[in-house]
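Reading a protein record of the kind used here takes only a little practice. Think of the row as the fold of the chain written in a discrete alphabet. A record is reproduced here so that you can trace the correspondence yourselves:
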Amino acid sequence: MDDILSVLGDLRGSVDGKATKNRDVRDGLNGKMREHIGTRNEFNTRVRNLITEVQKQKAIRDEANAAVRDAKSQRAEKNQEVKDAKELLRELSPETERRGGQNDRRGRRDKVDTPASLRRQIETLEREFELGKHTGNNEKKAMHRMKAMKRKLRDLSEKEDSNVELKDAREKLRIAMESQESCHQSVVETQEVAQEAHELMLKLSEEVDKLREKADASQAEVRRAKREADRAHQTYIVSLRCLHSIHDILRARNNREQGIDSGRVNARVEVQDLMSKLMSGETLSTDELMALQRGG
């Protein structure tokens, strides 16, 4: 009997050591699991925030695309207004201007002078004088040509000013072309806004996919750590059951040899209650498990 008790005493120490080791392994794995849960939750929070931003950019893009369609529709109307204004101007212009000039002997059309074209020619000639490109006889010819162009410009301007309909038509064309350019600029600007929002949305969506992969990887680590922690916990529980059985054997002998102490009986009842909970599958607190390992 003494040999058996000695073996049981040694076994109790060994099992107690294994129980402590498995408990520490379990606690360490649970700590890692909590870290992975924290990392996973952080990634998921960032994913939710980015998804909100993606939805915001999508709304901006869709609104800008709608504005682009409206701007294009307005631009089309302005294009038609410009076309109509040009047609009206051609109808009111002098006959030679409408036909684009007469044909020369080679069949080419002569360029028709208009107030705008004459002003450009005069400005060009004046710049050439400033640069000293006309000297000697050539200077006299250039001066004579400039005076002729200025007389013609004056005559055309007076004629144009006296033609109220033509003057109004030119003004309508100018206004229509300005409106046309304004609408076109609006189309370009809204297209840029839509494109920027779309590109940002795609970039954010890529980041969401990357973060989701990281969150899934963290979740996989959570599951792995939990499985290992559960195995260590089960081994710990088995060790406690073994300790409980060894304690029962050792106490039974001591009780027979030394009598039953009332205080020890109360402690034993408490341990027995904890063991009954454990065997029935109930969850024990850390303090209860430690008390069970000590054996009361």
Observations:
- The first helix runs from residue 2 to 92.
- The chain has one domain: 2-259.
- The chain has a mean pLDDT of 80.
- The domain at 2-259 is CATH 1.10.287 (Helix Hairpins).
